[in-house]
Design goal:
single chain, mainly alpha, MetI-like fold, 12 helices, membrane, transport, MetI-like
Length: 309
């Protein structure tokens, strides 16, 4: 328990340092690119632009902007007001968009883990057969094809040719199944390959051969003696898998018109909405750090030989 507490304290310190570094780097990049949030095809009158700059504190020196925004985040958790979305704060945008993105990510991960582990186990048990080659060939394709290409093909197949799902929107389970499948497919392919490799390694160990020699049913040996050890590489991959799902959702939310934080992130980047973009960057940073920490803890729980450091 003491080791876990000290680990969490260290991770919290590293997270704060990482968030500060990301905030600083993002602030510098946003102010370094040409143009500003008020640059558009229609020129804003100078007087109105001065008023807008004053409203959003953009008329202050860069160092003061940096300090004021950072103090607001630290003291009040205030990510500011969106420059382009009138009457919306960044916190309100996150509160509305996060449940959508979280639902999509969770469903995609559940699909990826279920399909990937099942395919990996079947492929390892029937190694060298036509089924093994077919499953691993499909996994290679899943890794090679980007999810936005897969989404386009899925829309053609399951919306126009075989109308099983709606093309876009949010509100029902049918509307989120197709984007979740497209988002989780590449992750499922990686998990299938990792599971197969882990299964083949554990199948060759002495305790597994002993279990087979004692006459235990094949299903019992696979589920109780082989699978737990084979899943350790999969657990370690869940951190990068979470990152893949979160970053992949940026494009898919736009394709399927889902009102998640990914679509808001793209909008903020294209419209140069400094505060909204910064809020999204910091949110993704915290999410990825927390998920990687949870994966490390779960790895230590599954394998007691692993020590949290």
């Amino acid at each position: 328990m003491t080791d876990l507490f000290s680990y969490l304290i260290r991770r919290l310190g590293w997270m704060l340092l990482t968030v500060w570094a990301v905030y600083t780097f993002s602030f510098i990049l946003m102010r370094s690119v040409p143009g500003n949030p008020f640059s558009s095809e229609r020129n804003v009158p100078p007087a109105i632009e001065r008023q807008l700059r004053a409203r959003f504190n953009l008329d202050a020196p860069p160092l003061q902007q940096y300090t004021d925004y950072l103090v607001g985040i630290v003291t009040r958790g205030d990510l500011g007001v969106s420059i382009k979305l009138e009457d919306y704060t960044v916190n309100e945008v996150l509160a509305e968009g996060f449940p959508v993105s979280a639902s999509l990510a969770i469903l995609a991960l559940v699909f990826a883990i279920t399909l990937g582990v099942t395919a990996g186990v079947v492929s390892a048990v029937y190694r060298g057969t036509a089924g093994d080659l077919a499953l691993m060939g499909t996994a290679v394709l899943g890794i090679a094809i980007p999810n936005f290409v897969l989404a386009s093909l899925a829309i053609l197949l399951f919306v126009f040719w075989i109308p099983l799902f709606p093309a876009a929107g949010w509100g029902t389970l049918r509307q989120v199944i197709l984007p979740a499948l497209c988002l989780g497919a590449p992750v499922a392919a990686y998990i299938a390959r990792l599971t197969r490799a882990g299964m083949l390694e554990v199948l060759g160990r002495e305790h597994v051969r002993t279990a087979f020699a004692k006459g235990l049913p094949k299903r019992t040996v696979i589920l109780k003696h082989v699978l737990p050890g084979a899943l350790l590489p999969v657990v370690s991959y869940l951190g990068p898998a979470t990152a893949s799902v979160l970053t992949g959702s940026l494009v898919l939310e736009k394709i399927f018109a889902l009102p998640g934080i990914g679509s808001h992130f793209i909008y903020a980047a294209t419209q140069r909405d400094y505060t909204l973009a910064m809020g999204m960057v910091l949110t993704y940073t915290v999410l990825l750090f927390v998920m990687n920490s949870l994966v490390d803890i779960s790895y230590a729980v599954i394998d007691p030989r692993v020590k949290l450091q």
